[in-house]
Amino acid sequence: MCTCTLACSCDWxxxxxxxxxxxxxxxxxxxxxxxxxxxxxxxxxxxxxxxLSTTNHYNCPLYRTAERRGTLATTGHSTNFVMFVKMPxxxxxxxxxxxxxxxxxxxxx
Length: 109
Description:
Layout: E1 5-7, E2 10-12, E3 27-29, E4 36-38, E5 57-63, E6 81-88, H1 93-99, E7 102-104
Parallel strand pairs: 5-7
Antiparallel strand pairs: 1-4, 1-7, 2-3, 5-6
């Protein structure tokens, strides 16, 4: 299980979400005045590639800190980037990319 924070004016719909949405348990537009909102508890369950769901999703980057940058390790990966998390959505992935939506494991160091 993993708990994170969603960044950049998005929200997570649930049965208690106040706005009308097309589907529950998916990324949704959030209040533009709120930068960080709690993300749902995420269960990481390994699967074979051919068993993954083909539903509409956004590969949301998960970062350790809100800075979204890190030093380049010898492996060629950033020290701040953790992984991509498949987040269900009704919107195209490009919509969330342009909004800068990401998951953060900590808001500050």
